[in-house]
Write a structure and sequence with these properties.
This protein is 38% helix and 17% strand. The protein is an alpha/beta fold. The chain has two domains: 64 residues, no CATH class; 167 residues, no CATH class. The longest helix is centred in the last third of the chain and has 21 residues.
């Protein structure tokens, strides 16, 4: 049974790498408001964080022995037509070689968590990982897992599990591709409900799971962490603005430093 964690003492560290960053009140407020369900903060907190990703997957699959390797965050894939997609998290099961793709989506539906996008995620990974002259049966079992802020299907389930079936007898097609949607509106008192709580909670002191709170605490409760996340998100915002500058110029918007930060969120 998960228990809410106790606040731990934080050791202060000095890092000259971020000496030029000024933590303004606005930036401090933005950092305090970040949640794991926020895409960029999610990626920052789970980068190289095998322990946290393992914990999420253990809850989703109800498997305390699940172990992962080859964790990658923000992995880019491009198809032969030039259409690209960035997958939030890719990880491999240490024992079974099952592939997990975890995606955070805050939009109600749209393109972000649509069934078509889930289909594309499955296909793009398979296309890039079937080596020349390899049999199709060498493709790994895959799970595309969307963690959504809202219950996009409106049926109240903690997790929606999708796979292909024969229409006549409803037997599984067994192509070993699976799509899961974790319902961000779910409020149950089980571990899924507590996971959803932690993903949407702003204060690490109120988390149920220490595995998830640890990195959030670093970014929100230490000066080094605040500077690191500020620098990372500012660079992401700058990149986003440069990639979309024509759209904003067409709207007559000025690209000042403050707007660069705010547009990302």
């Amino acid at each position: 049974m998960a228990k809410k964690i106790k606040k731990k003492a934080i050791k202060k560290k000095n890092n000259k790498k971020f000496n030029k960053i000024t933590l303004t009140d606005d930036i401090k407020r933005d950092i305090e408001n970040f949640r794991l369900i926020d895409d960029e903060f999610f990626n920052a907190c789970f980068k190289d964080n095998v322990k946290a990703v393992t914990h999420i997957l253990r809850i989703i699959f109800d498997d305390e022995n699940l172990e992962i390797i080859n964790l990658k965050v923000q992995e880019d894939f491009t198809n032969f037509k030039g259409h690209s997609v960035t997958l939030d998290i890719i990880a491999r099961n240490k024992v079974t070689n099952v592939i997990y793709n975890i995606e955070i989506q805050r939009s109600k539906y749209g393109d972000g968590a649509s069934p078509e996008r889930a289909r594309y995620h499955v296909d793009i990974y398979d296309t890039h990982n079937l080596k020349k002259n390899r049999d199709f049966r060498s493709l790994p079992t895959t799970y595309v897992i969307f963690i959504t802020e809202k219950d996009i299907f409106g049926r109240g389930l903690p997790i929606y599990k999708i796979q292909r079936y024969f229409e006549d007898n409803k037997e599984p097609f067994n192509d070993r591709s699976h799509i899961y949607y974790v319902n961000g509106d779910y409020k149950g008192n089980d571990d899924i409900g507590k996971l959803v709580h932690d993903l949407q909670c702003k204060k690490p002191e109120e988390f149920y799971f220490e595995e998830l709170a640890e990195k959030v605490r670093f970014f929100k409760r230490t000066k080094e962490g605040k500077m690191e996340i500020s620098d990372l998100l500012k660079k992401t915002a700058d990149k986003y603005i440069r990639a979309n500058k024509d759209k904003y110029i067409a709207k007559g918007e000025k690209l000042g430093k403050s707007s660069e930060w705010q547009m990302l969120f």
